[in-house]
Structure formats: structure tokens, C-alpha cells
């Protein structure tokens, strides 16, 4: 008797729905065991991770703040990935967006420029992100260069451009030579939604982006094209869809969203341009995109969930003295189970009663 | 069923936090924000040792909490605020990049006291503290000049901020006091902690003819490279002799413990005030690791210089100071540069054969 994985005749819709729940359940069980081994009360620990952050307004705001750039970038990436275009360089587009928007903020500093500054910054951020993303897209379309490599390499270029600017021309003259621009003027700052909190307009923009992506994919021909090109390139060609054009389009959109997220982050929670504005949002967003199954609503949930584990992880460090590494193990285990459970959509377990010898004898 | 479980869990958490609050009423809560992992064997590790010294000394009166690996971006503001919300009344934020986030949270919570390491922005409830590491660098410069056969020093720079630039200048001034023709080669790695990059920089410097490695980065990687190649090196932040028993000449050891203990005592007594502390060798804000792998006369010289700096007889930035372009620097501190000039140092002294990045 043995247990084998057998390919299903078609995708199981039930499993597709419950597999994330199974994954979360398995994660909770595994983590409980881990907490018990560490000598912590598992129920209390899980409470600190998952429930405590949801019980007060402050933590809820922080979850939204943390999830905002992740969701925005991941939505853009999902369009690329659905169209079989592999943008790995969202981090660079995020940085370029931040740089372009900051250019306006830095140059209007101390002037009596009016309320057009912030909208102009947001537009500049999105345009710069889109243009930066078009470089690897054009390289793929024109020369067949792997966009995975080129988009990734451009991350480092963007990083160094930002570095140069804040150490050189844009450095705060009153900042003792430290690498940062001066604090942005109020007209160049993303407004907070609740006085005294950190929740800002960017979170609303992220929700609009989610809704927009949902409509695009579910209700428009363009969305259909994106899906078909990804799933069945040959069929798409017969259908007269231009795959190259879609590569350019999805890269531009995803770059624009990453750039927008970048300038919102800089003009919002940070308030000035400095090196290290992103703790790897562009890369974490790849995880968010896949965790959310490349579906806009799924991405929103995945982004919030990942943010929850960050906030909960900090609270666990503070209230229960659980090391940060446990939070990382936690995130890793979760991703592992999600991917493992996903294989059940296409495969199923089956008990095989015939012995191997009989099989080989027959064959 | 699920609902009931959640309810039970929430109740437990609540009970836990209430118990915690009651417990905390009699103990002062002190929080720390760390840049790296506590096991980085450099900067963060030394702060962690300081915290442990604090617990050893005042453990019955205080409860400490730390958050490690906190990135210097917007996440740090949240991390600091989380500590405030958990009831910490004195919070040490231990990296330069936490300056603005610390200030923002400090303005929001006027009844909580903050201590920011190596920054320059202060407030009624926010102090700053740092070390005069340039003093140690001057001693290292003298040792390096004595020990180098090639007359070329290799220097791994992190970021061209004043603290690092003044370290390079102090090193050169110390080295020039022994050998006026000493040369220094500098590689900027643009990171505080990246063992791979630090090791590559050390190799490149040795390949370019340097025979002594000095660093302003946090990992022991450069020390290991020097040890492998049979060259000499200086540690940084912490004792790195076990990574180069035959290579380490000395190391600047950040000893935060005494400062942390003093500040927490002040907080307990109700005498805490916002201050700017810039401690040198005399205040034990840092120490020099034992002088090793050098002949006795060099060791004696180093000890004499250390004693002279500690007593205030010798100032590494004694005037006249001549800048790289040959012009004399205005002397604003009497017979030596003023603290403000060192804290904002944005020029190389004469003899440094490098262009300051961003200038």
C-alpha cells in the first residue's frame, strides 16, 4: 500500500478555495508546536500575532500603512505575471518613482508653491516608474533579452542613483553632510487621514488600484487579452492579440504603480528622501502577488495578512520576548504551506493498494 | 467553535497584558531599538552587551525589551511607537537613521524619554549620545604608521558622513605624526554591515599594496581577510581578536554599559534631562582593546598617546589643521578644532589621496 500524488483531470474548484485555509491551519499547528518547544504558551503567542493587532485602532492603522506599498506593487506585478511577463525589478521602479517625485519636492522647497505640488509629485512618480519599467520591457520585445535579469539588475542602478542624489546635489545643507534631503514642505506631503495617526491618503489610493485592477481583469477585453496571452500564447496569436504590446503595457502599468507607491512612501510616512527608503517592498510584493493568487482581492487580503505578521511579530518581540527570527520562520512556513497546498488543486492524494512488484511484473 | 477559541485567546491575551501592566507598575520599562541582529558581532552586539550590563546592574528595578533588525526607514517609527505603547518610559534608539523617526515619536509622547545614538537632533525629551571615536583612530594611525612596511594603509569606509570622515582624518593625522609621507587608500562600501563586500574591499586594498587594513564597518570579515593573507588589521566596535589572533593590532571597543546605567539611574531618580553626551576615552564611552601583535616600543607609544588623549594633554585635531587643498582650517576651538567642526567634518586633511564622495 502506498500514498501517491495523482494528477486531477481538471482543476478542483473546491480545493482552490479551501487550500489557503488548510495552509493557514497547518501553519498555526506548526507554529503552536514551535512556540511550545520555545516554552511559550502557544495560544497566547498566536493571540499576540493574529488577534492583538486587530483589537486596537493604532495597530489596524499600522497594518494598513505597511500593506499599502505591498498591495500597490503586487497588483501591478500580478498583471505582468498573468501576461507571462516577469517583472522582478519593482524595487527599482519604486525607488525611481520616489526619486522623480522628490525632485519636485526638493525644487519647490521653501517657495510659495501651492497645492499642485503633491499631485505633480504623484504623477511624476508614476511616470518615472513606468518609464523605468519600459527599459527591460523594450529590451525583451526588441532584442529578446531576458526581462527577469534586466529588470533585476536595474534595481541596483536605481539604488545607486538615489544614493548619489541624496549624498550629492539634494543633500540637506543643514544636515551635517548626512545623506538625506531636508524634510518636505507640508504641500509636498501626503496628508494623514486621522489626526495623530499614520494612516495616509496612500491607503485609499491602494484600494482604488485594487478596484481598478478587478474591473480591468474581470470586465474588459484588455483584461481578457492579458489572461489569454499568459495561459495560451498560441491561442492568443490566433486571436490576433499582440503579445509584445501586452508586455510593454503590463510592464508600464506595474512600473507606474511601483513608482507611485515609492513616492507615496517618501512623501508620506518618511517625509524626506534618504537611502534605504524600502525594506525590500518590491521583492516582498512578489510574494504578496503569488500569495494572493494574482487576483486583486486576493492580493489585498495577502498584503494585509503579511502586514499583520510584521506588526504581530513586533508585538511578540515586545510582550513575549519572542525573537524576530521566529517571525521570519513563521512567514517562511506560511509560504511553504500555501505553495504545498496549491499543488492539491492540480493533484490529489490516492492510496494505491497494488504492490510495486506486481506493477513492474505486468509492465 | 472557532469564535469561542478566538474569544478565549483574546481573553488570555488581555489577561496577559493586564498582568504585565500590574507587574510593570513597580518596574521601569526600558526599550532598545537595534539596527542589526544582536549576533552581528559588531555595532548592535555592543549595544546588546550594554543592555546586558544594565540588566546586571539594575535588573531588580527595571525591565528591558529590545527590537532587533529594525530597518532605518518608516518601519522604525512604528517600532519605536510600539515600544512606547508597551509602556516603555526610556527608549534608546541605537542608529543614526532612527533620528527623524525618534524625533517624531518624541514629539507625540512628551512624557516618554528618548535617547538617540550618533545623531544631532534633540528635544526636551530626546537626548543624543555618541563616542569620540576619532581619539581611538588617532592612536591607530600612529600604530599603523609604525607597523606598515609599505607605508600604505587600506581603509574601508562605510558612508562618507562626518563621523567616518573625521575618523579617516584622525587616522591620517596620527600616522603623519610618525611618517609624514604615509599614504592611505580608501574604499567606500556604502554599508555598515555586509561581510561579503567588506571582505572584497579588504582584498582589493591589499592587492593595491596596502599592508594594514582599517575599517569603519561592523563585521569581522576584513579582519579574517587580513589574517588569511598574513597582514595586520584593526578591529571595529568590538573585540575581533578571535578572527585574527595574529592580525589584530587593537580595536575600538564601544562600551555602552556605563552610559546606559547612568541614564537609567537618572531616570529612576527623576533627574533625567535632555542632554548631548559625546564621550571620549576619559568617560569610558569606548575603550581600546589590548595592543597586540606589535613590538614593545610601538605598544609603549600607543599607551602613551592613549594616556595623553585621556588626560586631555593631546587633542587629535590640534591646530593648525591643513585641509587637502592646502588651505588652513579655521580654528574655532582655541588650540584645536571645535566640536561642531568635528561633528560636521566635510573635508579631508592634507595627504589623503582620495576625493570625498559627493563633494
TrEMBL record, chain A:
It comes from the Bacteria. Its main location: membrane. Keywords: Cell membrane, Membrane, Transmembrane, Transmembrane helix. It is a multi-pass membrane protein. It is found in: Cell membrane. Coiled coil: none annotated. InterPro entries: ABC_transp_permease. The chain crosses the membrane at residues 15-37, 43-60, 67-86, 116-135, 147-166, 199-217, 246-268, 280-308, 329-349. This is ABC transporter permease. The lineage of its organism: Bacteria, Pseudomonadati, Pseudomonadota, Alphaproteobacteria, Hyphomicrobiales.
